[in-house]
Amino acid sequence: MNKFTYYTQGTCSSQIDFELDDDGVIGDVRFTGGCHGNLQGISVLLRGMKASEAVSKLQGIRCGYKNTSCPDQLAFALRQALTQNASAGK
């Protein structure tokens, strides 16, 4: 598993730590801050899912009046990780 850390912008959570395997499948996901119960639920639901599928489901979700949300920020993070894995030849 490859480990990634993403520092969020515009959300109550400040950081997302997650794992992706070489096939782009999500392992553990942990949010720092935010709505603990909701984010814990998202983390459990995503475990074992292809990151590309998670991105398509999570991107564009907004939280109240904000232009983003914790799930949307995770989509940004996953896209970056997939790009890094692809450029590293994984």
Can you characterise this structure?
- The protein has 90 residues and is of the alpha+beta class.
- The chain contains 3 helices and 3 strands, in the order E-E-E-H-H-H.
- It has helices at residues 36-46, 51-58, 70-87, and strands spanning 2-7, 13-20, 26-33.
- It has a 3-stranded antiparallel sheet.
- The protein is globular, with a radius of gyration of 12 Å.
- The mean pLDDT is 94.
List keywords for this structure.
90 residues, 3 strands, alpha+beta, 41% helix, 3 helices, 24% strand
Short description:
The chain is α+β, with helices and mostly antiparallel strands.
- What's the Cα radius of gyration? 12 Å
Instruction: Determine the strand fraction and express it as a percent band.
Output: 15-25%
Mean pLDDT, nearest integer? 94
Widest sheet: strand ordering: 1-2-3
Measured between the Cα atoms of the first and last residue, the distance is 11 Å
- Pairing-aware structural class of the strands and helices? alpha+beta
Number of helices: 3
- Report low-confidence residues grouped into runs of 5 or more: none
Count of extended strands: 3
Portion in helices? 40-55%
Break the fold down into its secondary structure elements and pairings.
Elements lengths: L1 E6 L5 E8 L5 E8 L2 H11 L4 H8 L11 H18 L3
Antiparallel strand pairs: 1-2, 2-3
